[in-house]
């Protein structure tokens, strides 16, 4: 009996030892990809500082695309890149919620909030409706709609988590966001002068229509510090809509999968993704004033670096030859940008 118990204990220790060695080997496999990602993020951060209005996340996805299409991606990198493009991405989106204080958003007033809701929802729905009608796949149309209407690359990455889209869809949507968001940096101030808008109206318009937070900040900074603050708050009000839009889309996709025969026909989206619940939780924590001021000061930088790492990982999965065939995505992104720009401009002029 004693010998039997001793044999059982020995077997358990051997099992634990094997599990520990496997875990160590698995962790070691992440190192090359994580080191490559760290280098890419450092370059992206430097480029974003040299190019105002260009976020590190956008530079990172471009670096990832360049690396894989120039033949620089090695099998040893894949485990680490898979880790950052999935788990780190979800963490970054959760941290994004810590930048949003609902009292600041509500202080905009009901008319400004109605404008944000109208422009965002109209652009999102119009893009999803038009995309398949001009030959853009429903999944890619969904990513473009989310990126243009909410918050650029971060929104694209969040929707990618539930949409069962591929990396080429992500790259196409991010490309659209970069192209038209960058054009807005030049066009919006020029159009504002032509239309006789006040600096405050320009800030509101930028916050309600420009894609990336960094791009909004660049437009607002050019118009003055006070305008910058209002532009960024309006933009963050759009970011709040990320959680309900992703959650509702996930529910709709889940019902569609069920109606077509259940999970056997493809990946079944979660009812409400955990990272969306985490995003809502962090928004709540920030809104209740539970985040120290010292932490809120560094949150945008930390979140931006995390998103850059995640999007670099996603970028390494992009086949550029397939991407360049998607000229219709550019048309769709242009129409979507025009829709959100026109509706938000009408609202800004109406509000005064």
Automatic annotation (TrEMBL):
Q: Which PANTHER family match?
A: INNER MEMBRANE PROTEIN YEIH-RELATED, UPF0324 INNER MEMBRANE PROTEIN YEIH
**One Pfam family this chain carries?**
Cons_hypoth698
Look up the coiled coil feature and give its residue ranges. none
- Keyword annotations from UniProtKB, A to Z: Cell membrane, Membrane, Transmembrane, Transmembrane helix
Q: Where, per UniProt, does this protein localize? A: Cell membrane
* Family assignment from sequence similarity: Belongs to the UPF0324 family.
**The organism of origin for this protein:** Streptosporangium carneum
> What membrane topology is annotated for this entry?
Multi-pass membrane protein
> TM segments?
27-47, 53-76, 88-106, 112-130, 142-159, 171-192, 213-233, 239-257, 269-292, 298-318, 330-351
Cellular component GO terms, alphabetically?
plasma membrane
Instruction: Output this protein's name.
Output: Membrane protein
Which InterPro entries does the UniProt record give? UPF0324_pro (IPR018383)
